[in-house]
Every structure is written in structure tokens, then in C-alpha cells.
Amino acid sequence: MFMGGGTSSQKRQRTSKPPVRGEDKFFSITVDLKDVLNDIKKHIEYDRYTVCKACNGTGAKNGTSFTTCPRCNGTGTIKEEERTFFGVFVRNYQCPTCHGEGKIINERCDVCHGSGKILHREK
Ligand SMILES: [Zn+2]
Ligand SMILES: [Zn+2]
User: Fold this and answer.
1) How many helices (H) and strands (E) does the chain have?
2) Distance (Å, whole) CA 67 – CA 65
3) Least buried of 62, 82, 97, 114, by fewest C-beta within 10 Å?
4) Which listed CATH number (2.60.40.1640, 2.10.230.10, 1.20.140.10, 3.40.50.970) goes with 48-120?
């Protein structure tokens, strides 16, 4: 009697798929992204400069304790005429008396120390 032959190599094909677990991963990634965005927002909101309300950004006490610069008449720039043979040249340069601000502060604002802006921190 001769038994066997051709019966040992029969394979069963698996048709059942493994369960898909991709959706859980995707969800966790979106949460992380949200956290990162929130973090960036926080950093932007920290340390921002706002106009000092005590002096309306003038840097002078009460917003009125300054005088208009007499040298540049409040323009902050000085015109200098230079007469040459070729004509009159007008040069503009920053007023050294008021440093281009156009005003001279008599009393500095206590809140912003004369800068006209305050550091505003937000959470
Ligand atoms: Zn000036
Ligand atoms: Zn101020």
C-alpha cells in the first residue's frame, strides 16, 4: 500500500484581518497639536507692550507735563539750509534736543518711567 503524496502541502489561507487601530493614534496626535498651538499662543501673549494709559503714551506725567520742543517746534526734525553756488540745499536731521520726539518731558510718568509704554503680561 502506498499512502500520502500531495496531501502535506495544503495551506489554509487566512481571510480574517487584524483589527484596525489607526484611529486611536490619530486622535492622540490631534490633541498634542492642540497643546502645541496653545503653548505658542501663550508665548505670544506674554510680555507685550501696551500704550501707557496714565500718560496716553506721551511718557510725561498725567500726559500733559511736557512742552513742545522749541528747537524743532514739535516736528522732531530740524531743517538746515545750506547755501552754495548751486543753490540752497535743505537737510533734515533728527532734533538733538528732543531726540526726534518733538517734545521735552518736564516730569516723567511714574507708571511707564517716561517710555510711554508698559510691559503687559497676560496669562
Ligand atoms: Zn526737538
Ligand atoms: Zn506713562
Assistant:
1) 1, 6
2) 7
3) 82
4) 2.10.230.10
Ligand 2 centre to CA of 103 (Å) is 15
Range scoring the smallest mean pLDDT among 4-8, 67-71, 88-92: 4-8
Percent of the residues in the chain that have a pLDDT greater than 90, as a whole number = 51
* Residue 43 reports pLDDT greater than 90: no
Question: How remote is the CA of residue 54 from the centroid of ligand 1, in Å?
Answer: 23
Rounded distance from Cα 68 to ligand 1 centre (Å): 8
- Residue 119 pLDDT exceeds 70: yes
d(CA 17, CA 1): 43
